[in-house]
Amino acid sequence: MSTMVAASLESLLRRRKPGHSLEAPFYTSPEIFEADLDIVFRRHWIYVGVEPDVPEPGDCMVIDIDRASVIIARDDDMGLRAFHNVCRHRGARLVHDEKTTVGNIVCRYHQWTYGLDGSLLFAEHMGPDFETACHGLKKVHLRNVAGLIFICLADEPPADIEDMARDLEPYIAPHDIANTKVVQQIDLIEEGNWKLTMENNRECYHCSANHPELTIPLFAYGFGYSPDGVDDLGREQIARYDGLVCELEARCEANGMAAREIDHLDDRVTGYRAQRLPIDQHGESQTMNTQVACKKLLGDLKDSKLGGLSVWTQPNSWHHFMSDHIVTFSVLPLSPERTLLRTKWLVHKDAVEGVDYDLRNLISVWVATNNQDGELVGYAQAGARSPAYEPGPYSVHTEMLVEKFVNWYVGRMSAHNAAA
């Protein structure tokens, strides 16, 4: 980052008004986008996938974060490892498919061959003094949090991933991600800056007007509401919702599952939040009829009415865990005004399509919701380009988590600038 860009960014960060959206350059500037990649995506823990993306020894997955390409591999001991997807000979890309299975990792260019632990096994014609031990694949830090895979490209990753793991594992573990399978993945390109995608996710102010499918199973009250002007019917609905929250917490805790809200979205380097929220009507799953989409429940769960566990991590993910299936979301920046939203749906590894679940029913709520959100993010990006744009105020009742995301972002960018 040039001195001029750093000074401009520092000025923008200093004058950020709490409780308001960011200034337009944060959403449109190529220079700030590059700073985001450097400071956020190359130095923090990034959510990239789940254990069943690479279920067996030799299974590999490739993740691209800007110019970095990373191989995530399952080794022969069932461990997970991550390496830069670059041959140590002359730098060719090694694995070209998003998902594949290999015996060893072999460079197509000159057949340098690496084991699943990243060690160089074979390099022909390199002479008697060549040391294979010095030319293994470059490692990338990886942390498996109860089946959610995070990587960090920094030399020294933030150590507080251990705090997040300790706090989140009791919430996630009963859903037994390791014994699930990915039955659908959809990549959606949103025409907006990655921060707008994240901000849109962190609130449900827009839900009642834009998400008819999502608001069948979910209560907007779960994401905040304004007490001003609530009529008698509204007060009855809020009281009912509050009662359902208490019932759900008791039900989950009786099943040995963590349920109560924990929130460290903007007070940690590795921010996170978790809470189980009630599901309306039948109370089972985030589906159009609010019943389970998969007859085979996850892990050892016996009770289908466990609401939905929502997990958020900074800077790029959110997740919904039900008794019967899981939906995970990762956000990866592509350009200042384009973002990849990757959504995966998981069910029990032994569930059979057409017998235990109908795929269309399983994915319908979030397919519709993602498409609607993508359109909204595009609207927000178009507005940020306008000379009339200026930061607007957040709702103190419904956009609290947006403020926490922006607080986290500004805090991490400012901390880097101060240390530079």
Automatic annotation (TrEMBL):
SUPFAM superfamilies membership: Bet v1-like, ISP domain
**Record bears the keyword Oxidoreductase:** yes
Highest taxon listed in the record's lineage: Bacteria
Q: Does GTP-binding appear among the keywords?
A: no
Alphabetically, the GO molecular function entries are: 2 iron, 2 sulfur cluster binding; iron ion binding; oxidoreductase activity
Q: Which residues form the Rieske domain?
A: 47-151
Q: Which InterPro entries match?
A: Rieske_2Fe-2S, Rieske_2Fe-2S_sf, Ring_hydroxy_dOase_asu_C_dom, Rng_hydr_dOase-A
Keywords (alphabetical) are: 2Fe-2S, Iron, Iron-sulfur, Metal-binding, Oxidoreductase
Cofactor(s) essential for the protein: Fe cation
Name of this protein = (Fe-S)-binding protein
What is the species of this protein? Skermanella stibiiresistens SB22
Classification lineage: Bacteria, Pseudomonadati, Pseudomonadota, Alphaproteobacteria, Rhodospirillales
